[in-house]
Specification:
25% of the residues lie in helices and 17% in strands. By secondary structure, the chain is α+β, with helices and mostly antiparallel strands. It has one domain. It has a two-stranded antiparallel ribbon with strand order 1-2. A hairpin with a 2-residue loop joins strand 1 and strand 2. The longest helix is centred in the C-terminal third of the chain and has 7 residues.
């Protein structure tokens, strides 16, 4: 774990290891998510659709949709 210092212009430098782990390049955009006293910094996806595609797979049983349709 590394520490960074906030500059007088309220800027930080993201350490090289973190940039490499997130595959960041110059001009990439980042998302900042604040939850209480925790702040998450992550790369902004090029396409939200492709990032979320398949993320819900396996949540519902195979018979769920059939039962839901029958309830209508």
């Amino acid at each position: 774990m590394q520490t960074v210092k906030l500059s007088s212009k309220n800027q930080i430098v993201i350490p090289k290891e973190a940039r490499e782990a997130m595959h960041l390049k110059g001009q990439d955009e980042l998302l900042i998510v604040v939850k209480g006293n925790v702040t998450l910094i992550m790369p902004k996806p090029k396409s939200y659709r492709s990032e979320l595609s398949g993320s819900g797979k396996g949540i519902y049983k195979k018979t769920y949709l059939q039962k839901e349709r029958q309830s209508w």
